[in-house]
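Field reference: sequence -> structure
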Amino acid sequence: MKNLLVAVIDYDCGNLHSASKALELAMLESDLQGSVILTRDPEKIIAADKIVLPGVGAFKACIDKLNNIDGLRESIEECALKIAKPILGICIGLQIMASKSFEGGEHKGLSLIEGEVIPLSPENKSLKIPHVGWNEVSVESEHSVLSGLHQKNFYFVHSYRFKPKTNDFVLAVTDYGDNFPSVLCKDNIVGAQFHPEKSQKSGVTLLKNFLEWSP
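Structure field:
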């Protein structure tokens, strides 16, 4: 069996080490053998079997940092769009996959999943922004990445949410005064608005499913 190489993209925006540790645990719980590396080297990213784009912070700061690392954006685009390797975006990592964001102005994203990042605006004004804490993720569309995860709770920290061009990209939703997409997928590209690395057993299960996923 070929050893699986998982590249966690290091662009100074995210829970990089906790994401890497959660992926290592998911690898141990799977039937796979391999390693998880933290890297910003375009050649190592292109050589990897699976790509993970984590993220914490503001959209503009994160996309600017990513764009300012030589060859990084191009390597992500090549893996996601040309080679069609499985790639997972987490929280801001999902949001910067969008076409654009309206957080602090209008800013272009990677356009890996067409859509916009807009403010969370629950109708119930007693609900606080940012949305912080555990919330239920309800599966809308069957997918192997969500295997065994119907109606499970995950940990969220965000003030903005993904509004996809089409609901065909939505795998799961979460209710925070209004339903918003919490898992999206387009072909080999998948993203979670929550933090699987902070979501205990359910989070490890999702990461394990991602590692075993063959789009």
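Note: The domain at 4-212 is CATH 3.40.50.880 (Rossmann fold).
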